[in-house]
Amino acid sequence: MGLHQRPPAHAVSGPMSEIVSLHLGMPPSTFPWPLEGSNATMINEDSLRAFAAARGRDDRVHPRRTPYNFAGIPSLVGASLGLELELAPTLPEAALGPLPRRYDRVITLLVDGLGWTSFEAAGAALPFFRRFVERGVCSQLSAQFPSTTAAHVTTLHTGEPVERSGVFEWVYYEPQLERLFLPLVYASVEGSETAPLAAAPEPNPLFPARTFYTLLAEHGRSSACLQRDRYVDSPFSRSVCRGARRVGYADVPEVARRLAEATRSSKDPSPDYACLYLDDLDGAGHRHGPGSPEHTEVLGHIASALESELLPALARSKARTLVLVTADHGQLRVDPERTIYLDQLLPQCREWMRRDGRGRPLRPGGSPRDLFLYVEEHRVDEALGALQAALDGRAEVLRTSELVARGVFGPRPSPRLLERLGEIAVLPAHRGDAGEMIGWWGEGEGQQHKRGHHGGLASAEMAIPLLAMAFGRD
Protein backbone atom coordinates (compact mmCIF):
# COMPACT_ATOMS: atom_id res chain seq x y z
CA MET A 1 0.00 0.00 0.00
CA GLY A 2 2.79 2.42 0.89
CA LEU A 3 1.94 6.10 0.71
CA HIS A 4 -0.01 6.10 -2.48
CA GLN A 5 -3.77 6.03 -1.77
CA ARG A 6 27.68 6.05 22.66
CA PRO A 7 29.31 8.89 24.33
CA PRO A 8 28.74 8.88 28.15
CA ALA A 9 25.44 10.34 29.26
CA HIS A 10 25.57 13.95 30.38
CA ALA A 11 24.44 14.70 33.93
CA VAL A 12 21.32 16.81 34.03
CA SER A 13 19.12 18.00 36.83
CA GLY A 14 15.44 17.39 37.36
CA PRO A 15 13.24 14.50 36.28
CA MET A 16 15.12 13.94 33.01
CA SER A 17 18.15 12.85 35.02
CA GLU A 18 16.06 9.94 36.23
CA ILE A 19 15.63 8.80 32.63
CA VAL A 20 19.37 8.91 32.06
CA SER A 21 19.97 7.03 35.29
CA LEU A 22 17.40 4.46 34.33
CA HIS A 23 19.10 4.02 30.96
CA LEU A 24 22.49 3.49 32.55
CA GLY A 25 21.02 0.64 34.59
CA MET A 26 19.35 -1.04 31.61
CA PRO A 27 20.55 -4.23 29.98
CA PRO A 28 21.90 -3.68 26.45
CA SER A 29 19.17 -3.16 23.87
CA THR A 30 18.45 -6.07 21.55
CA PHE A 31 16.84 -3.81 18.93
CA PRO A 32 18.68 -3.76 15.57
CA TRP A 33 20.45 -0.41 15.12
CA PRO A 34 22.53 -0.65 11.94
CA LEU A 35 23.69 2.97 11.51
CA GLU A 36 27.27 3.23 12.63
CA GLY A 37 27.96 6.21 14.84
CA SER A 38 24.34 6.70 15.87
CA ASN A 39 24.54 4.94 19.24
CA ALA A 40 24.86 8.11 21.28
CA THR A 41 22.99 8.59 24.54
CA MET A 42 22.36 12.29 24.80
CA ILE A 43 20.17 14.74 26.59
CA ASN A 44 21.02 18.08 25.03
CA GLU A 45 22.10 20.06 28.07
CA ASP A 46 22.62 23.19 26.02
CA SER A 47 18.91 23.20 25.16
CA LEU A 48 17.97 22.77 28.83
CA ARG A 49 20.12 25.73 29.83
CA ALA A 50 18.74 27.87 27.01
CA PHE A 51 15.14 27.10 27.97
CA ALA A 52 15.86 27.84 31.63
CA ALA A 53 17.32 31.22 30.61
CA ALA A 54 14.13 32.01 28.64
CA ARG A 55 11.92 31.15 31.60
CA GLY A 56 11.07 34.04 33.91
CA ARG A 57 10.48 34.09 37.65
CA ASP A 58 6.76 33.96 36.94
CA ASP A 59 7.28 30.63 35.10
CA ARG A 60 6.38 32.25 31.80
CA VAL A 61 8.65 31.60 28.84
CA HIS A 62 9.88 34.12 26.30
CA PRO A 63 9.98 31.92 23.19
CA ARG A 64 12.63 33.87 21.31
CA ARG A 65 15.11 34.06 24.17
CA THR A 66 16.17 30.50 23.42
CA PRO A 67 17.62 29.53 20.03
CA TYR A 68 15.84 26.19 20.43
CA ASN A 69 12.45 27.17 19.00
CA PHE A 70 9.90 25.09 17.12
CA ALA A 71 10.05 27.54 14.22
CA GLY A 72 13.55 26.25 13.40
CA ILE A 73 12.39 22.73 12.50
CA PRO A 74 11.73 23.33 8.76
CA SER A 75 15.25 24.69 8.39
CA LEU A 76 16.64 21.59 10.15
CA VAL A 77 14.69 19.31 7.81
CA GLY A 78 15.97 21.12 4.73
CA ALA A 79 19.58 21.06 5.91
CA SER A 80 19.30 17.35 6.76
CA LEU A 81 18.26 16.71 3.14
CA GLY A 82 21.35 18.59 1.99
CA LEU A 83 19.50 21.73 0.92
CA GLU A 84 20.31 25.39 1.53
CA LEU A 85 16.83 26.85 1.84
CA GLU A 86 17.66 30.11 3.64
CA LEU A 87 14.84 29.63 6.12
CA ALA A 88 14.81 31.46 9.43
CA PRO A 89 15.03 30.86 12.28
CA THR A 90 17.43 27.93 12.46
CA LEU A 91 18.26 25.50 15.26
CA PRO A 92 21.70 25.12 16.86
CA GLU A 93 23.97 22.33 15.63
CA ALA A 94 23.59 20.66 19.03
CA ALA A 95 20.01 19.71 18.12
CA LEU A 96 21.52 16.76 16.25
CA GLY A 97 24.48 16.33 18.60
CA PRO A 98 26.78 13.54 17.33
CA LEU A 99 24.29 12.29 14.73
CA PRO A 100 25.09 12.59 11.02
CA ARG A 101 24.06 15.79 9.26
CA ARG A 102 22.93 14.47 5.84
CA TYR A 103 20.19 11.94 5.06
CA ASP A 104 18.36 10.38 2.13
CA ARG A 105 15.04 11.10 3.80
CA VAL A 106 13.54 12.72 6.88
CA ILE A 107 10.38 11.80 8.79
CA THR A 108 8.81 14.29 11.21
CA LEU A 109 6.23 13.02 13.70
CA LEU A 110 4.23 15.85 15.24
CA VAL A 111 2.47 14.50 18.34
CA ASP A 112 -0.08 17.17 19.19
CA GLY A 113 0.07 18.03 22.90
CA LEU A 114 3.25 16.09 23.73
CA GLY A 115 4.75 18.59 26.16
CA TRP A 116 8.17 18.12 27.72
CA THR A 117 6.52 16.99 30.96
CA SER A 118 4.76 14.14 29.17
CA PHE A 119 7.98 13.18 27.41
CA GLU A 120 9.83 13.06 30.72
CA ALA A 121 7.29 10.63 32.11
CA ALA A 122 7.04 8.60 28.89
CA GLY A 123 10.79 8.47 28.32
CA ALA A 124 11.29 6.20 31.29
CA ALA A 125 8.18 4.09 30.76
CA LEU A 126 7.70 3.57 27.01
CA PRO A 127 10.25 1.78 24.80
CA PHE A 128 9.58 4.03 21.79
CA PHE A 129 10.71 7.14 23.64
CA ARG A 130 13.46 5.29 25.49
CA ARG A 131 15.02 4.51 22.12
CA PHE A 132 15.59 8.22 21.55
CA VAL A 133 17.16 8.61 24.98
CA GLU A 134 19.42 5.60 24.36
CA ARG A 135 20.29 6.14 20.71
CA GLY A 136 19.41 9.67 19.74
CA VAL A 137 19.43 13.30 20.83
CA CYS A 138 16.71 14.81 23.03
CA SER A 139 16.43 18.59 23.03
CA GLN A 140 14.05 20.88 24.88
CA LEU A 141 12.45 23.45 22.59
CA SER A 142 10.21 26.39 23.21
CA ALA A 143 6.91 26.44 21.40
CA GLN A 144 5.97 29.60 19.57
CA PHE A 145 3.47 31.99 21.11
CA PRO A 146 0.61 31.42 21.20
CA SER A 147 1.18 27.77 22.15
CA THR A 148 -1.52 26.57 19.77
CA THR A 149 -1.92 23.93 17.10
CA ALA A 150 -2.95 26.44 14.42
CA ALA A 151 0.31 28.38 14.80
CA HIS A 152 2.54 25.32 14.75
CA VAL A 153 1.05 23.15 12.02
CA THR A 154 1.06 26.23 9.76
CA THR A 155 4.76 26.77 10.49
CA LEU A 156 5.61 23.12 9.93
CA HIS A 157 3.74 22.97 6.61
CA THR A 158 4.77 26.36 5.22
CA GLY A 159 8.17 27.00 6.77
CA GLU A 160 6.90 30.37 7.98
CA PRO A 161 7.09 31.24 11.70
CA VAL A 162 3.92 32.60 13.27
CA GLU A 163 5.16 36.19 12.99
CA ARG A 164 5.07 35.84 9.19
CA SER A 165 2.27 33.33 8.61
CA GLY A 166 -0.21 35.33 10.70
CA VAL A 167 -2.08 32.11 11.57
CA PHE A 168 -1.85 32.23 15.34
CA GLU A 169 -4.98 30.78 16.95
CA TRP A 170 -8.05 28.59 16.67
CA VAL A 171 -10.17 31.68 15.99
CA TYR A 172 -9.26 35.27 15.15
CA TYR A 173 -10.59 38.30 13.28
CA GLU A 174 -9.85 38.08 9.56
CA PRO A 175 -9.96 41.53 7.93
CA GLN A 176 -10.41 40.06 4.45
CA LEU A 177 -13.65 38.43 5.64
CA GLU A 178 -14.63 41.17 8.12
CA ARG A 179 -15.56 38.51 10.66
CA LEU A 180 -14.08 35.94 13.01
CA PHE A 181 -12.37 33.08 11.19
CA LEU A 182 -11.50 29.51 12.25
CA PRO A 183 -8.58 28.60 9.97
CA LEU A 184 -8.24 24.88 10.73
CA VAL A 185 -11.90 24.11 10.02
CA TYR A 186 -12.17 26.89 7.44
CA ALA A 187 -15.30 28.46 8.84
CA SER A 188 -16.51 31.83 10.03
CA VAL A 189 -18.34 32.80 13.21
CA GLU A 190 -21.90 33.84 12.53
CA GLY A 191 -23.45 34.95 15.81
CA SER A 192 -23.38 31.94 18.12
CA GLU A 193 -22.81 29.51 15.24
CA THR A 194 -20.00 28.65 12.86
CA ALA A 195 -20.55 28.47 9.11
CA PRO A 196 -18.31 26.68 6.59
CA LEU A 197 -16.73 28.91 3.97
CA ALA A 198 -16.46 28.13 0.28
CA ALA A 199 -12.88 27.17 -0.56
CA ALA A 200 -10.88 29.83 -2.39
CA PRO A 201 -8.65 29.13 -5.39
CA GLU A 202 -5.05 28.23 -4.56
CA PRO A 203 -2.95 29.85 -3.36
CA ASN A 204 -5.55 30.85 -0.81
CA PRO A 205 -5.04 34.51 0.18
CA LEU A 206 -5.89 33.70 3.81
CA PHE A 207 -2.77 31.55 4.17
CA PRO A 208 0.91 31.86 3.22
CA ALA A 209 1.39 31.70 -0.56
CA ARG A 210 4.43 29.44 -0.32
CA THR A 211 4.53 26.07 1.42
CA PHE A 212 7.51 24.09 2.69
CA TYR A 213 6.58 21.31 0.28
CA THR A 214 6.59 23.52 -2.82
CA LEU A 215 9.99 24.79 -1.70
CA LEU A 216 11.27 21.22 -1.40
CA ALA A 217 9.82 20.39 -4.82
CA GLU A 218 11.71 23.30 -6.35
CA HIS A 219 14.86 21.53 -5.14
CA GLY A 220 13.82 18.15 -6.52
CA ARG A 221 12.61 16.62 -3.25
CA SER A 222 9.30 14.79 -2.88
CA SER A 223 7.03 15.09 0.18
CA ALA A 224 4.05 13.43 1.81
CA CYS A 225 1.75 14.86 4.44
CA LEU A 226 -0.12 12.28 6.52
CA GLN A 227 -3.26 13.36 8.37
CA ARG A 228 -6.56 11.99 9.59
CA ASP A 229 -9.05 11.04 6.90
CA ARG A 230 -11.57 13.54 8.20
CA TYR A 231 -9.44 16.60 7.41
CA VAL A 232 -6.74 15.48 4.99
CA ASP A 233 -8.72 17.09 2.16
CA SER A 234 -9.95 20.15 4.08
CA PRO A 235 -9.43 23.62 2.57
CA PHE A 236 -6.76 24.33 5.19
CA SER A 237 -4.85 21.11 4.43
CA ARG A 238 -5.10 21.63 0.67
CA SER A 239 -3.69 25.11 1.11
CA VAL A 240 -0.80 24.61 3.52
CA CYS A 241 0.16 21.16 2.17
CA ARG A 242 0.38 22.18 -1.49
CA GLY A 243 3.32 20.45 -3.11
CA ALA A 244 3.03 17.31 -0.95
CA ARG A 245 1.13 14.11 -1.50
CA ARG A 246 -1.69 14.19 1.04
CA VAL A 247 -2.34 10.81 2.64
CA GLY A 248 -5.29 10.11 4.93
CA TYR A 249 -5.41 7.51 7.67
CA ALA A 250 -7.98 6.15 10.12
CA ASP A 251 -5.83 5.38 13.17
CA VAL A 252 -2.24 5.34 14.39
CA PRO A 253 -1.53 1.61 13.77
CA GLU A 254 -2.65 2.02 10.15
CA VAL A 255 -0.47 5.03 9.42
CA ALA A 256 2.52 3.45 11.18
CA ARG A 257 2.10 0.37 8.95
CA ARG A 258 1.83 2.51 5.83
CA LEU A 259 5.00 4.39 6.63
CA ALA A 260 6.74 1.09 7.39
CA GLU A 261 5.58 -0.44 4.11
CA ALA A 262 6.84 2.56 2.18
CA THR A 263 10.34 2.09 3.62
CA ARG A 264 10.36 -1.50 2.28
CA SER A 265 8.74 -0.94 -1.09
CA SER A 266 10.69 -0.59 -4.32
CA LYS A 267 7.56 0.04 -6.42
CA ASP A 268 6.13 2.66 -4.07
CA PRO A 269 9.12 4.18 -2.29
CA SER A 270 8.73 6.60 0.55
CA PRO A 271 9.12 10.31 -0.19
CA ASP A 272 12.24 12.25 0.66
CA TYR A 273 10.26 13.97 3.41
CA ALA A 274 7.21 12.73 5.28
CA CYS A 275 5.32 14.73 7.90
CA LEU A 276 2.90 12.80 10.11
CA TYR A 277 0.44 14.64 12.34
CA LEU A 278 -1.03 12.72 15.31
CA ASP A 279 -3.89 14.34 17.20
CA ASP A 280 -5.03 11.66 19.69
CA LEU A 281 -2.97 12.80 22.68
CA ASP A 282 -4.12 16.41 22.61
CA GLY A 283 -7.75 15.29 22.54
CA ALA A 284 -7.24 13.04 25.56
CA GLY A 285 -5.56 15.87 27.43
CA HIS A 286 -8.40 18.26 26.68
CA ARG A 287 -11.03 15.75 27.79
CA HIS A 288 -9.35 14.25 30.86
CA GLY A 289 -6.40 16.48 31.71
CA PRO A 290 -2.67 16.04 31.06
CA GLY A 291 -1.16 13.21 33.08
CA SER A 292 -4.53 11.56 33.67
CA PRO A 293 -4.77 7.76 33.27
CA GLU A 294 -6.66 8.27 30.02
CA HIS A 295 -4.02 10.67 28.69
CA THR A 296 -1.22 8.28 29.64
CA GLU A 297 -3.01 5.36 28.02
CA VAL A 298 -3.37 7.20 24.69
CA LEU A 299 0.32 8.10 24.69
CA GLY A 300 1.09 4.44 25.30
CA HIS A 301 -1.02 3.38 22.31
CA ILE A 302 0.74 5.88 20.03
CA ALA A 303 4.19 4.81 21.21
CA SER A 304 3.36 1.11 20.89
CA ALA A 305 2.17 1.44 17.28
CA LEU A 306 5.27 3.40 16.24
CA GLU A 307 7.58 1.05 18.14
CA SER A 308 6.12 -2.15 16.69
CA GLU A 309 5.49 -1.04 13.11
CA LEU A 310 7.71 1.86 12.08
CA LEU A 311 10.99 1.49 13.94
CA PRO A 312 11.79 -2.10 12.90
CA ALA A 313 11.25 -1.20 9.23
CA LEU A 314 13.52 1.82 9.53
CA ALA A 315 16.16 -0.21 11.32
CA ARG A 316 16.30 -2.66 8.37
CA SER A 317 16.25 0.02 5.68
CA LYS A 318 19.35 0.89 3.69
CA ALA A 319 18.26 4.50 3.23
CA ARG A 320 19.81 6.89 5.69
CA THR A 321 16.80 8.29 7.54
CA LEU A 322 16.44 10.95 10.21
CA VAL A 323 13.38 10.63 12.43
CA LEU A 324 12.24 13.70 14.34
CA VAL A 325 9.55 13.62 17.03
CA THR A 326 8.19 16.90 18.30
CA ALA A 327 5.04 18.69 19.47
CA ASP A 328 3.19 21.94 19.08
CA HIS A 329 2.62 22.60 22.80
CA GLY A 330 2.12 21.01 26.20
CA GLN A 331 -0.93 21.43 28.40
CA LEU A 332 -1.92 22.75 31.81
CA ARG A 333 -4.54 21.18 34.04
CA VAL A 334 -7.64 23.40 34.15
CA ASP A 335 -10.95 23.30 36.01
CA PRO A 336 -13.88 24.29 33.77
CA GLU A 337 -15.95 25.13 36.84
CA ARG A 338 -13.52 27.95 37.66
CA THR A 339 -13.76 29.58 34.23
CA ILE A 340 -14.33 33.33 34.28
CA TYR A 341 -16.59 34.52 31.47
CA LEU A 342 -15.81 38.13 30.62
CA ASP A 343 -19.24 38.96 29.24
CA GLN A 344 -20.82 37.77 32.50
CA LEU A 345 -18.22 39.38 34.75
CA LEU A 346 -18.40 42.71 32.90
CA PRO A 347 -21.58 42.85 30.79
CA GLN A 348 -20.60 46.32 29.58
CA CYS A 349 -17.64 44.83 27.72
CA ARG A 350 -19.88 44.06 24.75
CA GLU A 351 -20.15 47.81 24.20
CA TRP A 352 -16.37 48.12 23.85
CA MET A 353 -16.08 45.69 20.97
CA ARG A 354 -15.47 46.49 17.35
CA ARG A 355 -18.12 45.36 14.85
CA ASP A 356 -17.85 42.79 12.11
CA GLY A 357 -18.87 43.38 8.51
CA ARG A 358 -22.53 42.95 9.43
CA GLY A 359 -22.44 45.36 12.34
CA ARG A 360 -22.35 42.70 15.09
CA PRO A 361 -20.03 43.02 18.12
CA LEU A 362 -16.94 40.86 17.75
CA ARG A 363 -16.42 38.31 20.47
CA PRO A 364 -12.78 37.69 21.47
CA GLY A 365 -10.38 35.60 19.43
CA GLY A 366 -7.88 33.12 20.83
CA SER A 367 -8.63 30.60 23.56
CA PRO A 368 -9.33 30.58 27.32
CA ARG A 369 -5.55 30.59 27.89
CA ASP A 370 -4.81 33.52 25.54
CA LEU A 371 -7.72 35.80 24.79
CA PHE A 372 -7.51 38.60 22.22
CA LEU A 373 -10.12 41.36 22.38
CA TYR A 374 -11.13 43.51 19.42
CA VAL A 375 -11.89 46.84 21.07
CA GLU A 376 -12.88 50.18 19.57
CA GLU A 377 -9.79 52.37 19.73
CA HIS A 378 -11.49 55.13 21.71
CA ARG A 379 -12.60 52.56 24.33
CA VAL A 380 -9.26 50.79 24.84
CA ASP A 381 -8.15 52.75 27.91
CA GLU A 382 -11.56 52.27 29.54
CA ALA A 383 -11.59 48.55 28.74
CA LEU A 384 -8.01 48.04 29.87
CA GLY A 385 -8.61 49.66 33.27
CA ALA A 386 -11.84 47.78 33.92
CA LEU A 387 -10.37 44.41 32.92
CA GLN A 388 -7.20 44.89 34.95
CA ALA A 389 -9.25 45.72 38.05
CA ALA A 390 -11.73 42.85 37.57
CA LEU A 391 -9.07 40.23 36.78
CA ASP A 392 -6.45 41.27 39.32
CA GLY A 393 -4.62 38.13 40.46
CA ARG A 394 -6.37 35.97 37.87
CA ALA A 395 -4.83 37.26 34.62
CA GLU A 396 -2.41 39.70 33.06
CA VAL A 397 -4.27 42.23 30.91
CA LEU A 398 -2.27 44.36 28.49
CA ARG A 399 -2.32 45.97 25.09
CA THR A 400 -1.35 43.56 22.34
CA SER A 401 1.13 46.20 21.17
CA GLU A 402 3.01 45.59 24.43
CA LEU A 403 3.19 41.86 23.70
CA VAL A 404 4.48 42.68 20.25
CA ALA A 405 7.09 45.01 21.73
CA ARG A 406 8.25 42.23 24.07
CA GLY A 407 9.03 40.14 21.01
CA VAL A 408 7.05 37.07 22.03
CA PHE A 409 5.64 36.65 18.51
CA GLY A 410 9.06 37.11 16.95
CA PRO A 411 11.35 40.01 16.07
CA ARG A 412 9.45 41.28 13.00
CA PRO A 413 5.70 40.56 13.11
CA SER A 414 4.11 40.89 9.70
CA PRO A 415 1.23 43.26 8.91
CA ARG A 416 -0.91 40.14 8.39
CA LEU A 417 -0.38 39.06 12.00
CA LEU A 418 -0.71 42.55 13.47
CA GLU A 419 -4.06 43.22 11.84
CA ARG A 420 -5.46 39.97 13.28
CA LEU A 421 -4.31 40.41 16.89
CA GLY A 422 -6.79 42.92 18.26
CA GLU A 423 -6.14 45.65 20.83
CA ILE A 424 -6.09 43.88 24.23
CA ALA A 425 -4.65 40.52 25.29
CA VAL A 426 -5.70 38.58 28.39
CA LEU A 427 -3.22 35.97 29.66
CA PRO A 428 -4.74 33.92 32.50
CA ALA A 429 -2.59 33.09 35.51
CA HIS A 430 -1.22 29.67 36.39
CA ARG A 431 0.47 27.97 39.31
CA GLY A 432 2.69 25.01 38.58
CA ASP A 433 0.90 22.72 36.15
CA ALA A 434 -2.59 24.18 36.80
CA GLY A 435 -3.99 27.22 35.04
CA GLU A 436 -6.92 29.60 35.01
CA MET A 437 -9.30 29.91 32.06
CA ILE A 438 -11.01 33.10 30.94
CA GLY A 439 -13.63 32.84 28.24
CA TRP A 440 -16.71 34.33 26.62
CA TRP A 441 -20.10 32.82 27.40
CA GLY A 442 -22.05 34.30 24.49
CA GLU A 443 -25.30 32.38 24.21
CA GLY A 444 -23.77 29.36 25.90
CA GLU A 445 -21.58 28.29 22.99
CA GLY A 446 -18.49 29.41 24.92
CA GLN A 447 -19.07 27.20 27.96
CA GLN A 448 -15.89 25.39 28.89
CA HIS A 449 -15.69 21.65 29.54
CA LYS A 450 -12.01 20.91 29.03
CA ARG A 451 -9.71 19.53 31.73
CA GLY A 452 -6.52 20.40 29.91
CA HIS A 453 -5.68 23.49 27.87
CA HIS A 454 -2.90 25.53 26.29
CA GLY A 455 -2.23 28.73 24.40
CA GLY A 456 -0.39 30.77 27.02
CA LEU A 457 3.24 31.28 28.02
CA ALA A 458 3.42 28.93 31.05
CA SER A 459 6.39 26.59 30.91
CA ALA A 460 4.08 23.54 30.91
CA GLU A 461 2.45 24.91 27.76
CA MET A 462 5.66 26.09 26.09
CA ALA A 463 8.21 23.34 26.80
CA ILE A 464 8.23 20.71 24.04
CA PRO A 465 10.66 17.99 22.95
CA LEU A 466 12.60 17.57 19.76
CA LEU A 467 13.80 13.97 19.57
CA ALA A 468 16.18 12.95 16.81
CA MET A 469 17.38 9.49 15.82
CA ALA A 470 19.27 8.19 12.76
CA PHE A 471 18.67 4.97 10.84
CA GLY A 472 20.12 3.29 7.78
CA ARG A 473 23.23 1.57 6.42
CA ASP A 474 26.17 3.20 4.74
TrEMBL record:
Origin superkingdom: Bacteria
Pfam families given in the database record: Phosphodiest (PF01663)
GO MF assignments: hydrolase activity
InterPro entries documented for this protein: Alkaline_phosphatase_core_sf, Phosphodiest/P_Trfase
The name this protein goes by in its record: Type I phosphodiesterase/nucleotide pyrophosphatase
Species per Swiss-Prot/TrEMBL record: Plesiocystis pacifica SIR-1
Lineage summary: Bacteria, Pseudomonadati, Myxococcota, Polyangia, Nannocystales
